[in-house]
């Protein structure tokens, strides 16, 4: 039965700290960045980057306000355009910026289901204790009495004190926000996802070493860990701020009679909050019926989903479940939300990429024949009944991962997916006999017909290229780019 009113019961101080952080950002003055290790203050025209976050925010507010005192609205639009351009330039410089990591508390996460990774973790811990005397290493608390790890033996071999090896638990991490300076993961992508899940707010930079069979997040090779960690701990590095999704789960209760108004009131309770790095998935679960989901954007109904379910993924998660369901690849440096249907009941429902500024809501329709199930990064599976919904928005807490190379994303998809890998077209001129090869060259130079001449020229070129392959390779050419400047005579 339809109700006359909807009430949401949530904690009033749920986002108090996040709001305080935004207010603190508003008070920041002009922004200075470190690009390639050097301060960058000069920006080319248009857009002079003459304002900080607070000034840019004020420009947008002034332009969108109804009444502006002392200024004409026509004079604000150019400033608005310049501010928008400045923000894009600023984001570009943030992506290219290098940061220096000051590490005192180092956290190591390994795949506890594989004993061999425990011994690899021993090597990392011993090397760190020997070479960086100011670093305290934290390993998971299950290794406190482990004979495989044997912390006492590690301290004796590295000539370090026993208190330099300490232990962390999920409860300890949640109660010590911004405590760890660096995280090292030893495993596959699942280990990185686990590291993201235990940090509900601020996530320290992560150095993911590849020890799995297939990894898009783990771009560091373990056999080079000494050189890699020495570079990260001593030099400036680039960090990818991987976007996460903030997912808030709400449950609809049965209608009740308000004793004052005597009207039916439906209370909606806030259940839980999750920050996901890959994706949120809503599927039909064990029910044989199709899922009937309502997808809202900024509280406006976008479409209804009839099928096996829906995937809402981050750019990092675009290479996971979303890709298998037909979604597009998205670079992690792009802030966007990918919406991908799972086996939709209409051929016209194609995947769509939405801006990260949009707040989505996935709701189980009241007319749905069955319930649905939601999971966050493949975990914490919860049943959604009719009227229950999930609100999805960009999380203010990103997952920073240390960049192995500027092209690591394309290297990973080329290595793991064989992306756009095919054999190139081969010339066939080398198949001809030497006599016919000479004949082709002579005919191509004498022929006056344009199309035939072009075909002979291309054949001659391919023949020359094939012959050059047989010759010893010469020294590579040095290509120098230069800008030509016009000189005018007066």
TrEMBL record:
<keyword id="KW-0808">Transferase</keyword>
<dbReference type="InterPro" id="IPR016064">
    <property type="entry name" value="NAD/diacylglycerol_kinase_sf"/>
</dbReference>
<dbReference type="InterPro" id="IPR002504">
    <property type="entry name" value="NADK"/>
</dbReference>
<protein>
    <recommendedName>
        <fullName>YEF1-like protein</fullName>
    </recommendedName>
</protein>
<feature type="region of interest" description="Disordered">
    <location>
        <begin position="433"/>
        <end position="476"/>
    </location>
</feature>
<feature type="compositionally biased region" description="Basic and acidic residues">
    <location>
        <begin position="465"/>
        <end position="476"/>
    </location>
</feature>
<dbReference type="GO" id="GO:0003951">
    <property type="term" value="F:NAD+ kinase activity"/>
</dbReference>
<feature type="compositionally biased region" description="Polar residues">
    <location>
        <begin position="450"/>
        <end position="464"/>
    </location>
</feature>
<keyword id="KW-0418">Kinase</keyword>
<keyword id="KW-0520">NAD</keyword>
<feature type="compositionally biased region" description="Basic and acidic residues">
    <location>
        <begin position="436"/>
        <end position="449"/>
    </location>
</feature>
<dbReference type="GO" id="GO:0019674">
    <property type="term" value="P:NAD+ metabolic process"/>
</dbReference>
<dbReference type="InterPro" id="IPR017438">
    <property type="entry name" value="ATP-NAD_kinase_N"/>
</dbReference>
<dbReference type="InterPro" id="IPR017437">
    <property type="entry name" value="ATP-NAD_kinase_PpnK-typ_C"/>
</dbReference>
<dbReference type="Pfam" id="PF01513">
    <property type="entry name" value="NAD_kinase"/>
</dbReference>
<dbReference type="GO" id="GO:0006741">
    <property type="term" value="P:NADP+ biosynthetic process"/>
</dbReference>
<keyword id="KW-0521">NADP</keyword>
<comment type="similarity">
    <text>Belongs to the NAD kinase family.</text>
</comment>
<dbReference type="Pfam" id="PF20143">
    <property type="entry name" value="NAD_kinase_C"/>
</dbReference>
